[in-house]
């Protein structure tokens, strides 16, 4: 073939590649701008309604005469109900569609979260927390599965980090409002903790209508994507699915019995045992060691939340750029272990606060890389079941962590023994992630299309 004939063909190929890149950037930009804010706000509201009990307890435990053990047990019951309903909820999401099911979850949990203001006895407290967990079950794994319908594997750590940033930012909102809401005690005959549950529960009910209106079930239902963008996205996701160990043709049972699913589930179980132990007791610990007012402690929690958000975004972006996942999870887990140990032995208030703040930042830092790992070996219906199974294992941590802290506080009169006990699960989380390292494929680093 003559050289003049080769050059036009090469030019055509380059033009086609450039056009594909442009289409991909456009599709990912649209998906990021239209979907991530919606699901981020939704998860932020879920996080607030799940954990605002930590601030409400500063008044509620005194008013209702709840011991630390009663409080820790009730706080943990949320996660029992949540865990038991994870897999069924995610399978129902496949049946009803993402927008209907996620909106339904938000509506029911919002009503139940607000109804916590009516609690008067330990039994009512336990039942309310259990039902709240059942209502919220499936939202988080449903969103993680939903992201697999939109973002190719190599872009998921950033996508997850951008939505999951609602977790630390939820702490910012919760901490900023806590002092004001608890200060409303006496208005209309309600205690401050009752106002907190009411005001922070109802937004989820209202936002469920927004989700129902604006969230498409998948790329094919998105009117704002062009046919070329839908085709590009389908091609990318089909390629990812072919490389998955448990792919589209796999059954639900195969996903549920996968050793990798159980290993990543145990990683999150250990890590979140520490996180929930911290989250449900942090305001009380900060209040005790600093001697500050509830309002100032709330602002402290808010500032720590901002630091956690920064850690999440930076570590997730670096993980995608380098294509490396395990070390981006293992190192933060080791940092968590050192932080809990330091906080448990420190005598200076500033060192206790600083150590617990570092543990929170480290926990948030590994979320994007870790949550992108299941999609490396799961695809299709197996992904929905596998991610839900992983989260089922994970959610029992929410029962273990608060209960551990409550029992140890009643037994020793201090939170330090409970914090010291978190050293083991932090290191165990690092160990479980290491077990996955040998079988995980390293993702090639890419330039971000968003």
Q: How would a crystallographer describe the biggest sheet?
A: none
Oligomer: single chain
Query: Number of DSSP helices?
Result: 21
Our measurement of the CA-to-CA distance between the termini, rounded to an integer number of angstroms, reads 40 Å
Mean pLDDT score, rounded?
85
Q: What's the Cα radius of gyration? A: 23 Å
User: Going by CATH, what is the homologous superfamily?
Assistant: MFS general substrate transporter like domains
By CATH, the architecture is named Up-down Bundle
Poorly predicted sequence stretches spanning 5 or more consecutive residues: 442-450
Number of domains: 1
CATH class: Mainly Alpha
Shape: globular
Count the strands? 0
* Secondary structure: helix percent: over 70%
Structural class determined from secondary elements: mainly alpha
Q: Return the string of H and E elements.
A: HHHHHHHHHHHHHHHHHHHHH
What is the fold named in CATH at topology level?
A: Growth Hormone, Chain: A
Strand content: under 5%
């Amino acid at each position: 073939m003559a050289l003049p004939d080769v050059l036009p063909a090469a030019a055509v190929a380059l033009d086609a590649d450039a056009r594909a890149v442009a289409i991909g950037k456009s599709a990912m930009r649209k998906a990021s701008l239209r979907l991530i804010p919606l699901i981020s706000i939704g998860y932020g509201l879920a996080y607030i309604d799940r954990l605002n009990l930590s601030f409400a307890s500063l008044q509620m435990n005194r008013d209702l005469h709840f011991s630390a053990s009663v409080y820790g047990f009730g706080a943990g019951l949320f996660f029992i109900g949540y865990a038991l309903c994870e897999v069924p909820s995610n399978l129902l999401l496949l049946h009803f569609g993402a927008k209907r099911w996620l909106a339904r979850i938000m509506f029911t949990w919002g009503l139940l979260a607000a109804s916590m203001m009516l609690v008067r006895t330990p039994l009512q407290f336990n039942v309310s927390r259990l039902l709240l967990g059942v209502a919220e079950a499936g939202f988080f794994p449903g969103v993680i599965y939903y992201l697999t319908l939109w973002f190719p594997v190599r872009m998921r750590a950033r996508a997850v980090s951008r939505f999951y940033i609602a977790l630390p930012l939820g702490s910012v909102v919760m901490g900023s409002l806590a002092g004001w809401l608890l200060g409303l005690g006496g208005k209309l005959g309600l205690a401050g903790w009752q106002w907190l549950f009411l005001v922070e529960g109802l937004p989820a009910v209202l936002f469920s209508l927004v989700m129902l209106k604006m969230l498409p079930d998948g790329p094919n239902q998105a009117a704002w994507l062009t046919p070329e963008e839908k085709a590009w996205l389908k091609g990318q996701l089909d390629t990812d699915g072919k490389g998955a160990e448990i792919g589209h043709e796999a059954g639900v049972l195969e996903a549920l019995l996968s050793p990798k699913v159980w290993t990543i589930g145990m990683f999150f179980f250990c890590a979140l045992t520490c996180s929930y132990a911290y989250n449900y007791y942090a305001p009380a610990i900060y209040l005790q060691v600093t001697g500050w007012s509830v309002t100032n402690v709330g602002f402290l929690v808010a500032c720590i939340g901002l630091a956690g958000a920064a850690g999440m975004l930076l570590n997730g972006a670096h993980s995608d750029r380098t294509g490396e996942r395990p070390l981006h999870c293992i190192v933060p887990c080791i940092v968590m272990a050192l932080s809990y140990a330091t906080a448990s032995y420190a005598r200076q208030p500033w060192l206790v606060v600083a150590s617990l703040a570092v543990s929170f930042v480290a926990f948030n830092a590994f979320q994007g890389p870790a949550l992108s790992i299941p999609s490396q070996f799961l695809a299709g219906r197996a992904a929905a079941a596998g991610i839900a199974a992983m989260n089922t294992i994970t959610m029992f941590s929410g029962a273990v962590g608060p209960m551990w802290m409550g029992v140890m506080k009643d037994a020793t009169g201090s939170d330090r023994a409970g914090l010291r006990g978190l050293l083991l699960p932090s290191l165990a989380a690092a160990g479980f992630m290491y077990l996955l390292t040998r079988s995980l494929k390293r993702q090639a680093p890419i330039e971000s299309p968003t």
